[in-house]
Amino acid sequence: MNRTPVPITIALHMLKSKRRSIFVWGISITSLASVIALFFPYVEAMGNDLDQMLASLPESAQRAFLGGTTDHSSPEGYFQIELFALMAPALIGIFAINLGSAAIAGEEAARTLPLLLSAPVSRSKVIIGKFIGLVLAAGIVCAGLYLGLQAGVLMSGIDLAWDKLLAATLNVMFFGLSLGTVALAIGCSTGNTAASQGLTALLFVIGYLQFTFIPLIDEGNWLYEVSIYSLYIVNEPLLKGLQILDVTPMLVIISITVMLAISSFRRRDLHH
Amino acid sequence: MINTTALIGTDAKVDSPTIRTDNLTKYYGSSRGINGVTFSVNRGEIFGFLGPNGSGKSTTLRILLNSLTPTQGSASILGFNCQQDYVEAHKHIGSFSNDISLYENMRGSELLTYLTNLRGNIDQEYTNHIVQELQCDLSHPIRTLSSGNKTKVGLVAAVMHHPEVLILDEPTTGLDPIVRQSVFRLLRDLQTEGCTVLLSSHDLTEVERVCDRVAIMLEGKLVAVERIDDLQQASLHHLFIQFEEEIPKDILSSDPNIISSIIESSSMSLTAEGDISKILQIISKYPIKNLISRKSSLEEIFLHRYGEK
Prior knowledge:
heterodimer, A: 272 residues, mainly alpha, globular, B: 309 residues, alpha/beta, 4-stranded antiparallel β-sheet
């Protein structure tokens, strides 16, 4: 009888043990996405007045809260401003950070890691399994986001192609996974959930502030582009669809952080 | 540092060492963990690992299980280096520590299925046999079980793959006597099957009951490796004697085996080490009304020998 590969066993166990959390996050994000989509016809009816009002906001406010667009009356602009500029990356980011942090540091704090490592399983395979679990969990929650949006779009009769929505959902999922794997790597090298969650959340907040405020202080400064948040927000999946080159930097970050996680976890003494 | 290599094979069922550590040293930053720990455990032996809290028992065991990397020295189990070949080593090792948690939200049966999927090749019939032997409750979430029942689940998880080596760290802490009895029975059954057991404990009574040899750790160092039989033979004797008449106060003053004695007119209480035949010869010269003799426990021997180090 063929045995399930060890990383898949670990990933499925991770999903099972986090099933309640995944379910609650999935349902919440699906509902939120549907409600936001259902509101679009009312916003659209306000026409150009709202766009003009948003255009009159200071540039810092536009960058901070609108993701760089003031086109609130088109479906693409509306979803960008209301969901994909801040709310979706923040929610998916928090979810992924929690999960990435729980993967190793959480098990270490709960003193269950020795039981897992008592099996003849290499530490590398444990990390690969945890990463697969993270991808699957983020995939489930992002599927909820997509389905909620798609349902709202269909019910409201919004003219927005399904592949553009899917592209935006994948873009935010890669962003979440970037943060999740950073949290995983910090957890693997420190065994500390607080450090893992705190430092990764700080990385997100600093990246967001960098993107928002550096151009205001120094217009020519390129540093605003060097953050996880700017790698996400500069892509325009709702307009251009999924461009592999655009998401490649996030995929590179994910790959590098997983390798760092493996490398640090293989060498480290465990706390328990 | 005590090199115990000379002891290898003198009393083992099969004379190849199953567990071997060589100059094992671990520092946590600048503070000491263990220093120069060298010992061997033979196949089929139940080897006790004794010492007070913080003496380095758990550190040694955690290096054997690859939770820690030694600062110096090496450890091997069945010839596999515990750090470099840990995956291969863990195919043959079972382990349980009172210090770890099981996945609390899982049922015992779900936990065993998970570990079975990770390990592969589990003999389900044998697992069922162990579950019955220990009367283990697998049907309820682990968080709802008593500590004794959690330990039983942990022990089933540790032995269900027929390990050749079993490493246990304080497995019976907090258990009631009935569960302890089940654990000891399990250990003896495993020993009969050829399993080597390394049992860390600070419960000397427990060690005395099941172990063949003991290593004694103090302040990060291995201070002795002794056979339980040898320890018991050299054990302390406590005697209380009532005589028919008053006896001289210096009756036993020259015997080197006497550790302490109190003589009050016609009664005497004394503690002596090793051979007490000479003492008995001397006191039998006086008419004895009553004699009570008690052999010391391993705990008393341990405290006597190592308590002040």
